[in-house]
Amino acid sequence: MRAADIADDIQRVLFTDEQVQARVAELAARVDADYAERDVLLVGVLNGALMVMADLSRAMSRHCAMDWMAVSSYGSGTRSSGVVRFLKDLTVDIEGRHVLVVEDIIDTGLTLSYLVSNLRSRQPASLNILTMFRKPDAATTEVEVKYVGFDIPNEFVVGYGLDFAGHYRNLRDVVTLAPHVYS
Ligand code: 5GP
To answer: Is the pTM of this model over 0.85?
Structure first.
């Protein structure tokens, strides 16, 4: 689905599919270079990171392993509930492995802090973070994010894996929604 297909729902297009894909290719090249000597395990955070995992892994020119975790922090609203629920764990043991966590978006950083402390306790050989989008408040988190697709304003965005009430994940472009969608 493209932004033009749902023009009435959209307030503003922040990034087109083409811009997102170009940035993913740049990130993939950096990941390839940084992990040239190590086998990387990509850990995708469901559900939002679905698209970035698929595109990033395919844009890489080296092998990577993949696994998934699922957490939920928002319910169906647009503000963090402050509670991170753990819905699905990894299927592999990450002890001694080089883990790259792939996130869709970091807002308050609450979800990421929770995930990182949980994963660190399993003693990976290394642990880095990649996020496609990052909001200004994320700067206050103590977790260092090695790869950032785009820094964005403090607005609720949808598309490229990010939903509102279960919709818009399959939108290729990244947009803000018109006020009527929320009412
Ligand atoms: P944090 O814990 O950093 O506040 O929030 C992280 C999670 O909240 C993300 O993984 C995502 O599921 C959700 N989230 C944060 N900001 C947005 C946004 O602008 N749009 C959507 N759709 N989800 C968001």
So the answer is: yes
